[in-house]
Amino acid sequence: MALQLWETLKEAITAYTGLSPATFFTVLALVFAIYYVVSDLFGPSETHQARPRSVDEVPPLPPPVQLGEITEDELKKYDGADPEKPLLMAIKGQIYDVSQSRVFYGPGGPYALFAGKDASRALAKMSFEEKDLTGDISGLGPFEIDALQDWEYKFMSKYVKVGTIKKTVPVTDGSSSGEAESSETKDDTKPAEVSPSDKPAAKSEEIPSGGEVVNE
């Protein structure tokens, strides 16, 4: 029975297509192969649909917030430890929002130790030592000054300035100066000393050559 159906199918293929059964099935297999290749190239796939979804899941960065003038201790709060706060860094006393480069300056980044600080000296010397994490740039050489200038230009062109570091002014003791002034005033009003020549001569007893004291 199956043999009769196969013979009937072969005759039908030859009659309707003019092709031999082997050629017909070969062409049919090629058509299916081409269909699957074309559908993979141009048809929608799960991989292509998943990419825009992952991009949408990343929240956009909030706009930089101007902080004005803050102290160095206040700047330490923006070192990236709190993801709700912006990531800040200062150079030459100017504070910049570097949140867009969190991969570099955030926790785990290669420059994470610079975040939340004025790292001018460390940038100039390209140093990662704790003692150089300061805004003090005194004693730097010309090449280090040039390197620091390049860093500043980079920060100014790439990041938004959001504040400055408050300068601490040493407090002087006004009481000591007041005492000094009062003492000087007292010295000015002091009466002039009387020289020995101006003093009246003391009454002396004259002793005659005889050695006896003469009473007046």
From TrEMBL:
MF terms in GO: steroid binding
Q: Which UniProt keywords apply?
A: Cell membrane, Lipid-binding, Membrane, Steroid-binding, Transmembrane, Transmembrane helix
UniProt keyword Cell inner membrane, yes or no: no
Compartmental location:
Cell membrane
Q: Does the keyword ATP-binding apply?
A: no
Q: Where is this region: Disordered?
A: 170-216
Transmembrane annotation, as ranges: 12-38
For this UniProt entry, what is the primary localization, expressed as one broad class? membrane
This protein's superkingdom? Answer: Eukaryota
Report the GO terms under cellular component.
endoplasmic reticulum; plasma membrane
* Stretches of the chain forming a coiled coil according to its record: none
Domain Cytochrome b5 heme-binding: start-end pairs:
70-166
Question: Record's Pfam families?
Answer: Cyt-b5
The family annotation for this protein states: Belongs to the cytochrome b5 family. MAPR subfamily.
Q: What name goes with this protein?
A: Cytochrome b5 heme-binding domain-containing protein
